[in-house]
Batch of 2 targets.
Target 1
Amino acid sequence: MHRSQGPALLAAVAEATAEALSEAEIRLPEDVEKAIRAAYGREHNPVARGELGNILANIALAGEGRTLLCQDTGIPVIYLTLPPGLPYTKDLEEAVARGVRMATEKVPLRPNAVDPCTRENTGDNTGPGIPAIHVKPGETFAVTVLPKGAGSENVSRLGMLLPTRRADVERFIVETVALAGGRPCPPVILGVGIGSTFDGVAALAKEALLLPVDDMDPFERQLCDAVNALGIGPMGLGGDTTALAVKVKKAACHTASLPVAVNVQCWACRRATRVVEGWR
Amino acid sequence: MTGVTELRTPLGEEVLTLRAGDRVTLSGTVYTARDEAHLRMQREGIPFDPRGAVVYHCGPVVAGDRIVAAGPTTSARMDALTGFLLDAGVRGIIGKGGMGKGVVELLRGRAVYLAFTGGCAALAASRMRLVGVYFPDLGMAEAVWAIELDQLPLVVGMDAHGNDLFGRVWEEAKAQCRARFHNSPGSTP
């Protein structure tokens, strides 16, 4: 049984995408703001407290004034959950892109999408392969957006480690943050993928950034503590708060492989979800 | 470090008393400049009085006569384009992430680097009023905007005495990482 993908449903998809993207750019998710507030309470370094205070003031001002949290409004990454019976089609893909273009014009967002070689800007945050769309089966029809800034994306790393050296997983993660220093606008959130394949592990790392940051298991907590021991602090000016959270997603992998990916996210971990109206 | 020092442009000898890690606020006119503006100023001259001036590494979002978003951009891109500004009398640079070792030496005895919190575009805009523009043909992000600041909160990242807070913190972090994993191979420099 295929549900109909008429113009009304496609318009609703575009609308949901535009709404989710607009909301993500203006209001930080509650769990992320809570984590920043908690870090501010714990921080001992006065410079770091000042930086975290500025970030909290910025979040409040953006929310009140309905303005952008950050001028790097990111590259759009989209996660679609499709309910049973609803196929993923070219029309659906185009409807999501239309939603990105609508938000780019309306908010407005900075046009960041360019040709990788000529660097020519497409002007509307879409282009071949962008928005990046990931599809998962689900119970409802929903659009989740994760606009990703470049400063943190650029210091992300992927490694194919030796399966006999599992302790190197922690090293690789901590080292990624040490090599990045202040460049990704810390405090960061680390999305970590372990396992899968060369391409799959990067997707896992990015998906980990969708998980709530106010809940870490003992392994994630251990990684987060190890990163914070580096003392890089907010913006690389030193302090107790280098990472707000580390979130890990695992998948099975080849017995001869140990893929690890670290997707670094700045403090502005922008994400929002909208259910597509009228899909039932 | 105690309290917050209030600074106002044009800056003078008072910048020599600042130390890396000091918290300050800055008021008065500053000038935005990114990559293209630096190249243009180098070629055609600085369009504002550079004596005691402050340059802000920023590509703002401007709507009419209003600044909508104006967070700092990564300063290190301007490392090789900074000497002529300091030689002309610029006393302060605002940006994020700090600058290279060469700039530490260029600042010595004359100017400071002031760090503004990355990503805080709304906070920055709330402390700003647009007063003018030079090189508008460079486009919104790259033009030189004259902006009146009202107590923008900043941290002295690099002082006029060779101290570089970013550099010190980063070196310590890398050393800490090497020490923690000293018996396993890796790529920490």
Target 2
Amino acid sequence: MSDQPRILVVDDEPQLTRVLRTGLKSRGYDVRAAADGLAGFEAFNDWHPDLVITDLAMPNVDGLELCRRLRAISQVPIIVLSAKGEEKTKVEALDLGADDFVTKPFGIDELLARVRASLRRANAPPMNEATQSALDSGDFHVDLESREITVRGKPIHLTPKEFDLLVYFVKHSGKVLTHRTLLAAVWGGNYVEQNEYLRVFVGNLRKKIEPDAASPRYILTEPWIGYRFDPGER
Amino acid sequence: MWHMRRSILDHRWAGYVAAVLSVGLLTLVLKLNGAHVNAATVSVALLLNVLFVATRWGSWPALLAAIVAMLCFNFFFLPPFATFTIAATDNWVALLAFLVTAVTAGQLSARAKRRAEEAELGKREIERLYAELRDAFERASHAEALRQSEKLKSALLDAVTHDLRTPLTSIKASITTLLDELRGRTGEPPVALDAESRVEMMEVIDEESDRLSRFINGLIELARIEAGELQLRRRWGAVDEIISAALLRAEPITRNHRVELQVEKELPGVRVDERAVSEVVYTLLDNAAKFSPKGSTIRLIARRAGDELIQMAVEDDGPGIVKDLRERVFDKFFRATRDGDITTRQPTGTGMGLAIAKGIVEAHDGKIWIESREADRGTRVVFTLPIGDEDVEPERRSQQNIYV
């Protein structure tokens, strides 16, 4: 067996799977394709890929159900392919545990960039809070014990909730985080509908950490979906 | 004019004036014929007058009319005349009886009039409420219809955008893969596309462009049919030529099936748009090939059905279409494989083929429908076409040629 990363492509559109198979193979990935969620799930169990790319609208078992089933048994990175207008389904997929999304029609570079980012995150050493006292990610250094943060070497002062939110962002760098996910993680399950909380705190965080809060480069907005944290250059 | 008269007659005092005037006038008339009338005739005539006033103006004018009539009766018709005194005792009784009868009859008829008016008012109120309710209902159902049609529109839009975006996605992904190789991005793993992959990408672009083009042509054709602008070029043609054209075009898609022809001998010519009818046959063959297993048989049948019709049918050995969906498959963008309960890995079409086929057949005054085959296996799509009139007037012919 080769040590090429394995990617499972699940889409009911044969032409697209043809293109993705060839495009991804040319970049050194090992690719298999499945035509629907059910076949995708079987292929996953059979082949144990490193990453799954799945369409959302498919016959039989759709992309959402596939995300649900995969998350029940695995932490494999999942990238969903969605169309404009499918925002609701997209958010649902991300809430169900998908890591990222690409909107159709997409250029192969965009997909490849998402694939690389997802694989990098998955291969990064796991962050274990119990044993880890500090997080280092890009421009950010977080001391979890003293609850101190420096950005580009400069210390910044955060309120406790702002600190929790930023730590969550740093721990999930690069991943699309839905409003719901962030609210549940930082404020708890009762607050998942309180988008305005999040907007206020993200606004405050940006003022404190961004060089220019009006055009943020760390906390990026994914319209209608949530946020994506980019820790900056390593 | 009528309104003016009405308004004067309806004036508050009109009843009283009319009561006095009418009794006076009647008395005058009766007096002029004095020789021929006796007291009984006079009393009945005056009573009638009271009744008239009562029904027209109600109880109070009627009461006034009764009193005036009583006075006139006494003054002019009961001896001694021209006095209010009465000589005979029985005349007193007659006068009293007249007064009581006049007042009672006047009150009763006035009440009856009031009742009638109230009833009329009630009826009008009911009619008004009914009209209001009906308007409200119409508005509501109009709004509902509008909402439904908006919903339908958005569902159709979803279907259309999906069908446009899907091939576009494959094209974009292929093109960017090819471009990446040409440009040789820096900082990325090197792209190694072999010749075969390159050809494959280009094939995908080619095929998907065709698919987009087919879809757009279908949309245009559907729009024409729906706008009633299907331009038929009817001329006399032979059924077997139409069939051959369709078979030739369908050859690449039916290559993996056995196509069996059952065409009746000596079929009459038909006056149809051959290209359009051939398109219908092609669509049915395409569907049959798509939705039945490779190696199975597709039957194409053409026969005469009565004096005026030609019937054609395409049968396959696929899974068939459940009864509930047999009409819906003719709706535009409806796909039994995707929108119905039929779950299959088979490819889906554009959802327009049968809708267009139906439009073409119906534009020829024909019919198209789906029949069960034995034991619900397979699909049999049947359509009929009128053979056409032998002697079409030259006028109509030239009119139709305008479109050619």
